[in-house]
Amino acid sequence: MTGCAIEQPDAELALQLADHGTKSIQGIGIGGEFGGASSLLAEFAATRRRRAFWMSLANLGLALGLMAGSATFLVLSNSFATTGWRIAMLLSAIIAVPALIARYKLADSPLFEQLKAREQRARLPSVDVFREYARPIVLLAAVFAFQLMDAVVTGTYVISFMRFAGIPLATVATIVFLSRIADVGGVLLAGPLADLLGRRRLAYLTIGLTTSLSYPFVLAILDKRVLAVAGLQVAIVLLGMGVLHGLSPILLSESFPTKFRYSGTGLSFGLAGVLGGAIAAPLLAVLVGQDVQRNWFYVPGLYLVYCLAAVLALRFVAETRGLSLEALDLVGVVRRGASTSARH
Q: How does DSSP assign 232-264, residue by residue?
């Protein structure tokens, strides 16, 4: 019928928005389990010398999963739009089943057992944590919204951006896969670097460097300099995704006592997912559209906005390097320290 046909550009935009919408729903599931994984690793490693390294591994599974997904996309790139995506969805069941079994078999941590023995568990932890730790939840969400923004931009939106710039899909798939390897490497580096530099200083450094690299990265895509695009994509993902991927369970878990750790880390990470993952890519899809040659500046501009928000929030987040989780349970060091950290 007249007036009912969808123009090709509108169809492309609608597909992008639908894709980002479904990934946002997936993000709700990831955020829901993030609090549990981070809390368990933090509490079982509470007395270990390299606690930060073990805590960073909470996001190693996610990084490895993204790498496996990118590898599947690379292998099935010629048929992904028709039948390949169905194979990828079926493969996810192989990971889901053993993950559910492992989660069921895990016992409570010693710190949580002590909490139960003292009868100090919160009745409504997801509600009570907001009453006592609303400020850290919001501030930490603003910090790690940058990481989740970088994740969706470099992992999903950049595929459309590169294709509109004229880079072949097979080349894009290869570049994304290489960057996923860098993501895994960044997670493994996060713990040692967080101990060496401190949690906040490492966050400042990675966020600033990632933002500065976003400008030459976009220009390299427009000029179709494939080697430069690959190198910059790897560097941006290594820093903005990988290192921050590993840092997020460290800083988040150390910012809440055992009583609220599961809920606090999960809520903060979930809010970061909304602020970063659910907004950034759809916004770029609308602002940039298919005219990447004219509207490219929105990409580094978005990085700058998220960078400024994260840096401002970090000024009011407490440094947790060297903090005892047992002491945090007794005196609530971080909650009170958050209000004074900006002066140190």
A: HHHHHIIIIIIIHHHHHHHHHHTTS-HHHHHHH
